[in-house]
Amino acid sequence: MTRSTFEYEEERNENLLRAFYERCKATPSAQVSTIISDTVGMPSDRFYVSDERAARVINALLQSREYPKMLPTHRQMYAEILRRVIELREVHPHWCVMQLVRQVLRTPAPQFYLTPSSAYTIIQRHRHRRGRRTEEQMRRRAAHIISEPAHYTSVASHDAESVIAP
After folding, report:
1. Where are the beta strands (DSSP E) in 34-104?
2. Burial letters for 83-105: b for 16+ Cβ neighbours within 10 Å, e otherwise?
3. Which residues contact 140 (CB under 8 A, 6 or more apart)?
4. Are the C-beta atoms of residues 103 and 90 closer than 8 Å to each other?
5. How far is the C-alpha of 55 from the C-alpha of 132, rounded, in Å?
6. Three-state SS at 124
7. FRET pair for 25, CA 20 to 30 Å: which of 55, 57, 131, 142?
8. Are 124 and 83 in contact (CB under 8 A)?
């Protein structure tokens, strides 16, 4: 089975792992499931959806068309994007929807718009790719990475994902 990808997947995963490490350091005694739930609710660097997909959905929503089969997290994300597009359109009424959407997508998002189980899957995938570590090793590694970020160019360049025990 081939896994689908999108253009911002690596960036999103790195941002998610970075946020996960921050939560690990901030709450060293919390259970991993709690940390993951907290992580997906943390602000994200941007909205992780392609410009084209977001513009199609926002155009449809502006025309009052519904997406009944949309996941609840995606519905929340597009509602926030739509709210921001409408606000930005008041400032830039001459911009087309694609310009408005592109501008909005590059602003910080209030959360990752992932379910905890999706985030866990992303973290687990990295874990299996890089080898296993205990939860305690993960916390120590996270503390070290956050305290010395200049030594790391990306979260994917080290084995952070290998640390969550199943």
Report:
1. none
2. ebbeebbeeeeeeeeebbbeebb
3. none
4. no
5. 40
6. helix
7. 131
8. no
